Structure formats: structure tokens, C-alpha cells
């Protein structure tokens, strides 16, 4: 994106910067602790720039998302889930490593000119599971570096089909000043096409994802599906073009929903439904400067590229029959940092002794039980801009992105990178998820405590260098 069996997870907590581990030396003896029939399959579906208000079951009644609504009805829908960051690269790094992206030096968005990416001493979810005899596949957008050593097959994935970075990083960008090269489409580590038709990407990703399930139905697998949509430029196949009656963005969401249905159908056809944990979420909030092509925050403040709620609070659904309750809505706050540590324990995998997670065990929450959560820090480009602790969110003084004039029909509007400015503020997110009422003066002790937390964590992040 420019400028996402039984758990007994041992909480690692926050750690100092640490990245000197060797995958081969530390985890070579990771063993299969149970047979394939006992190991749960994992499916993670991650959309690109889908906002909190971009699903029917999240209150947007003009969007048709029957398969996602069914997924929510058969599992738990979370109303306080946060992407790991407010932009693509750091968000995906956080999800796949369980660590703040700053620890990997990936606080910014990478593109075709970037020489940095996810290094070999950063372990991904795929690394852990592959060494536990899981088949691992990614079909969609990677965005964690495009040099050979940074691509998915060097980070635990057996198969890759998709894009190395965002679909707007190509020669047809509508805005002047973006001299992008031809956009490569990879099949494993080989470029098989340039500038793939954006209208066909969801269909092609879905085909490869379902083929992966069919191919690996007799062994445990990790299927990671990071869709390239609804990131601009929007694209939808002919079978969904105009079908929603609500515009192109709604058509795109409708096709993603179809894809979710195809994946779920394939799981059921192979008898894998009951032993598969399915997770659905987004990598960050909507790109508001694209107007009717940019999605909805559902009334939350600001959008992508900011650490206000609209930038990082995203949809999250978890489904696993017999393990996760059906039809539950949870307001417990979680983050994408929790996904990898949770799944490492769920699958009986091992982690290097020195590779500490920032995320924590959230199984009790997924299973519908009460559970406290450690503070979650909102970072943007290496700066700690906010922290959430229980119902409170404290915002540090900073400048932030604002949209003064939204675009239309694929053309961006006017976006000011540092057009907004906030002082130290405190919000009660239970009563005020829109972050409209500053309570810093009313609760000075809470504000002081949380401001100190941000200061201490900023100092910790300052030593995270490569």
C-alpha cells in the first residue's frame, strides 16, 4: 500500500530490538508434535485498504457481503481490532512477524526502488509453520521487499503467486510524478507477466488459493490470501461489473466476498471445514483522498496513513467450528500483532529463544472468554503517535494527514501530508470511538501515565536499527 486443537500461548511481551537470529540454527529441530489430522489448517484473508465500514455486517447496508456476513455469523466479529500499522508494508510486517515493524526496519512503505525489505533474521508465521511440516502458500500482494532475498519463498512460503508491491505502482498511475516501472506478476520467484489486468486479479488469486487447498488437503497448511483490492486502481471482473448497483467500489467488495465464499466452499468440499481456523481482516483503513474509490471508516476519525481510529481500526472475523463460538460480537481490543504468536502455539510450532513477540496470547478472547490485553502502541514512520490501554487512548502531539478535497472515479483529491495537528489528547473509546471529546484535562493522571508510556516506548524504538 502507498506511502494486512488447543492454544496455550506463553506471553512474550514487549522486548528490546532483537534481530540477530539464524533461522536454520535456532529452529532446525522444530518437530511435528501431532499428526497431520490433529494440526489445524490456517487460512488468513487480508484485504488492501478496506475500511472498518466496508462490510454489511459492520453496518454498511449498501454493500452486499453475504459470505463475509455468514463467516461472522459462524464465528466472532470483533469491533476493536487494529491493523499493525496505518500503511501497507509495516502493517504486513507486524502481522507476519508478531512484532512492531520498526524492529525490522520496515516502518515505511517499500516500492520497486527500495533496497530494504524483510531480512533473513526476521521470522515469519510461514517460517514457523513450514518447519513444523506445514505447506505454506501466499496468493496476492506481498509488499515486504522486492529484491530476491526479500521475496516470500525466502521467508517460509512454499508457493507464491502475486504482486511484490501495490497495484498502483505501475506506469499507469493517474497522478503526475510517479515514474513507476512495469508492475511484475510473480509465480514463485519467476516473473510471468508485466502490468497484469487489474480486473482479473481477484479471480486469479482465488483460483490459485483454491487449487492450493485441493493440492494440500491431506497435510496441514497455511494459506495466506492478501488480496490486491480494494486498493486503487479498482478492478473487477465482468461477472461483477455493475452488479452491486452501488458503484465500482461496491462491485469490488462484492467480488472479494465471492472469493471468500469460494475458499470456504473448497474447504468444505475437502472435509477441512471443522479443522481450519479462518481469519479475515484488512491491512489498514481506507484511502480517503480517492473519494468514491476509497472506502469508508464507518464514522471513525481520519483514514489510512493516520494513527487515529479510521486509519488502523479494521474489520476482523475469526471462525473455527467447535473452538470459537458462533455469532458472537466482541468489543475486546486486539491487534494484528497477536496473530502470529497465537498461531505459532495453536499449531504446536516453535520459536527461536531470542526472537520475542510484541503480540500476545489472545486465545481466550477468540474463544469468547474475558481477557485483558497489554497496551498497544500506534506508530507511524517510526514515531509513537498514540497508545491504547483498555478503554483509554492517549494521543501524542503530532502532525497528521488530512484530506481537504476527496477525489472521484479513480482520480485522487487533495491530501496534505501534515495538514492536521493535534496536541496531547485523551479519549474514552468505549463512549467516544470517533475521538471527538478530549478528556486530557479531566483525567490528568491517566494522561500523564500514558504519555510516559509513549515516551518510554519511543526510547525503546530508537535503538532498533539495522
From TrEMBL:
Belongs to the sulfatase family. InterPro entries: Alkaline_phosphatase_core_sf, Sulfatase, Sulfatase_N. Keywords: Hydrolase. This is Sulfatase N-terminal domain-containing protein. It comes from Bacteroides xylanisolvens CL03T12C04. GO terms for molecular function: arylsulfatase activity. The keyword Hydrolase applies. SUPFAM superfamilies: Alkaline phosphatase-like. The conversion to 3-oxoalanine (also known as C-formylglycine, FGly), of a serine or cysteine residue in prokaryotes and of a cysteine residue in eukaryotes, is critical for catalytic activity. CDD domains: GALNS_like.
